Amino acid sequence: MRVKRLVMAACALVSAQASWGALAVSQSKIPPVEPNVMRTEANAPVVKNVKMETQFVVAGGGLSGICAAISAARHGVKVVLVQDRPMLGGNASSEMRMGIMGAAGDGNREAGILEELQLKNFYYNPLRRYTLWDDVMYAAVVEEPNITLLLNTSVDGVVMKDGRIAAVKAWNVNAYTRYEISGTLFADCTGDGILRLSGAKFRHGRELPSEFGEDFQQGGGDGRTMGNSILLQLRKTEEDHPFHAPSWAYKFTDEDFVNDAQPKEKGKSYSYKRLYPDNNNFWWIEFGGNVDTIGDANAIQFELKRIAYGVWDYMKNHPDGRCKGYDLDWMGSLPGKRESIRFIGPRIMTQHDVMSAGHFEDVVAYGGWTLDDHHPDAFWKHGHLSEHHHNPSPFGIPFDCLYSVNVPNLMFAGRDISVTHMALSATRVMATCATIGQAVGTAAAISFRHGAALPAVVRKYHIAELQDTLEDDDCMLPFRWRKVSALTQAAQTEKANEPLRNGIDRALPKKPENGVWVQPGAETMVYTWAQPQKLSGARLIFDSVMKGTTKRMMKLEAEQTRVKMPAPLAKGFRLDARVGGVWKTVYSDALNILRFRKVAFESVEADALRLVVTESWGGDKARVFAFDAL
User: Fold this and answer.
1) pTM of the predicted model, to two decimals?
2) Are 431 and 100 within 8 A, CB to CB?
3) What is the pLDDT of residues 370-426, one digit of tens each?
4) Cα-atom radius of gyration of the chain, to the nearest Å?
5) Coil, strand, or helix at residue 58?
6) What CA–CA distances, in Å, run from 480 to 108, 362, 467, 476, 477?
7) Using CA atoms, how far apart are residues 579 and 575, in angstroms rounded to an integer?
């Protein structure tokens, strides 16, 4: 009830863009059961069969699936999003609680829909509780009128016609409902690649190093992968309490945790087990790389439970008292996967593509995590568990890795894209997967914009349109900058405002002061034209302090510190147009919580447009990176 009241209160806020979703407070539209008929075996089937038709079917509701569905829906595409869990988020959800990691380096943070979700999480969930984060993601999906969301629903079949996917079949275990969902385009964002049922080509395991000349490989030519992990969450307490492990937990001693001493090498580092509570990140409770991370999921889950309880028993009851004053607050139930299958696209991205920074003509996303290859022996390997090869950040990811080489209407996003095992070690992290998801959803929209063109046709004829649309939606693409609107280019403005139209929508190490700093309520940014222009909107980028990752990380230890909204972010702003020599407010918002805003207003003929930041979220000054007239 408390969460429900919180959601309803949030929905009452004056700014529609700041709401959890209008659907949360609307009257139920679920048709009632026939009131005068008792249901029995004679008139009520146990299993319902439902047929649905849509344009774009997205299988998998992790961050890649969420971003694919939202991006397509916002561009006018009808979407059905199928998720096999009771909540969205995948590895980032409250079930698994993995950190949302992405590109390293200042200026490389992922923006777009992912940044929108994380800023909404700041506002609605300042204590960064995972269960409320689940509902931030849920609200972002259900507030999109073009998305139909099916939770607790597993895809278990496909219908093929003329070599293409015509429909997916799915089963909802809670509602005893079998679905057949017809569509034109399909995206597999499951990570495990269930749409392989179409006959799409795929790989599972490690290539021989000789196939692509990948000299970073730790072995190869086999079915081994990186493993799955279960996490723990600790709580600092006022007093110490005992812990008793279950009888089936492993018993560990100091000899089980002897680390090797690897010599320092340029461009290479290693990760180890860290058995102290201050880190509170147990990614290394990992297993499954030597078996089948999909087919052996239940056995892997139990093995990880045995390891996890044994690790905490060892730490909590260690004679050196390292965990005195800590309790086990939460234990993961569903393991998070790093690797299972990889689809095959027109291009297979390799270690060398990552190391050379991915200068692709069809770049639509980017990564920046290290080539972080976890050994398949995982937890049971003595010494280091992972080798990091330090690569450029960012590195580009091409569209040719995001659609099937043999099933024409199948796309994919997340950790099942067309890469080698070695390249996957850098592209698999969730912030990268989110940007890939937004690229795939936007590609679907471009496809329908051109008569339901197939992904290969989008690649051949419309790739520039896809790239421009992504950049317009606040997705940075490496080695190029966004094109500003023609109206913005034609305007006159003060020299100090020129950064607003340079197409660089963030601060960078070489441009740390990019953008325009303004004192709320006192300074304005103005564009003028020699003749009145038809104006109907604006595109704005505010400063959400994208440097670093710590503040956006969910907390693995339940604490009471509340995160604040980014201080230089504009909380209030308005747009004024000069019509017939008189300034007229055409748009205003007193409660902005987002970095990227694309606003529309009633069309006016005006010879000037000004942006006024009326309030920041606490900073003496607010920063604006982009201001485009539309």
Assistant:
1) 0.94
2) yes
3) 999 999 999 999 999 999 999 999 999 999 999 999 999 999 999 999 999 999 999
4) 25
5) strand
6) 13, 12, 10, 8, 6
7) 13
